[in-house]
Amino acid sequence: MADEQPDPVIDVHDYEGVRVSCTRQRWTDRIEANHPELQQRASEVADAIQNPELVFEDRDYPNRKHHLVRTPDNPYGSLLATIVEYGYDTESGVTIGRIVTAFYKTRIRDDDTPLFISLSHS
Amino acid sequence: MVSALTPRFDIQGLKRLRFSYDAEFDLANIHIEAPQPASTIEVDDGWYLRLSDEAIVGMELHGLKRIFLSSTLFARVFTPSLDELRQHTGKTIDEDFTADGSAQELPHTSHLLLFMLGAAAMKLQARQLAETTDARAAMQLANLRSPEDRPHR
Q1: Cβ-defined contact of A110 to B20 (cutoff 8 Å)
Q2: Residue A37 contacts B, CB cutoff 8 Å
């Protein structure tokens, strides 16, 4: 996980204080390249990790969480979802998060399990 | 009320595609033509459609190896395409790769994409139907309540 450290485009702490990062290379080559609507939106994704309105557990990966914020004026969806994978970092000896992907969507599934609901956004 | 979405896709219009695999997170992105700005809709666990003005422009699969290839059906469907992509890129799904080609250059992957889009569209329709049925059932249940049980306005 040491390769997450050089030149991170996102390096924040999530709603539980866990450090979450994304290298510039991953952001450009993976996330922006596959989701062009997220170009110039790294700060919005960072904010979704720091101050989510809702956090859901991933259905298949217990070590992944979906951080959601409302984006009412966005043409691609009223919600920004950022998926973070958490794991133990042997170098630092703590759990850290890495961004898997991010996208805009319009709906939340009825049977999603919320892990966190922000009261400050309501 | 749940609004139904009916994605559009021109089967005859598939000319080029791009298949991108992220080995670190076992994530596949398949784009029709090239990546486009789009909204994303979940059709099943880890299975997302990318839509631009309700036209399907791609698909994102989380857990290609861990989930999709562990199913006998999907393993059979994906194998010819993965063989083709290995020949095209020189890489396997143990590493990152991006394959960009025409439908003629990547025929098995084109067939895979069409199969997966059809399956995704059916899953989406089934989910929307279930949600609409749930919403109707909830409304009927609310209407069956006696007036004194209903909240005062």
Answers
A1: no
A2: yes
CB A106 within 8 A of CB A79: yes
Instruction: Please check whether residue A118 lies inside any domain of the structure.
Output: no
The domain in which residue B81 lies consists of 15-145
Q: Is residue A117 part of a domain?
A: no
Q: Say whether B40 and A100 touch across the interface (CB within 8 A).
A: no
Condensed to tens digits (0 to 9), the pLDDT of residues A20-79 reads 999 999 999 999 999 999 999 999 999 999 999 999 999 999 999 999 999 999 999 999
Which three-class secondary structure state does DSSP give residue A107? coil
Residues 54-83 of B with CB under 8 A from A: 60, 62-63, 66-67
A77-100 core/surface letters (b: 16 or more CB in 10 A; e: else) = bebbbbbbbbeebeeeeeebbbbb
Q: Identify which of A33, A35, A59 has the shortest CB distance to residue B45.
A: A59
List the domain range (segments joined by +) for residue A59: 2-108
Q: How many structural domains is chain B composed of?
A: 1
Amino acid at B59: M
> Is A120 among the domain residues?
no
pLDDT at residue B1 above 50?
A: no
To test the contact with chain B by mutation, choose from A35, A65, A68, A110 the residue with the greatest count of B C-beta atoms within 10 A, namely A35
Interface membership of B42 toward A (CB under 8 Å): yes
Burial class (CB in 10 A: 0-12, 13-18, 19+), B137: exposed
Find the residue in A nearest to B22 (Cα).
A30
B31/A3: higher pLDDT: B31
Question: Would A121 be classed as within a structural domain?
Answer: no
Is B153 within the bounds of a domain? no
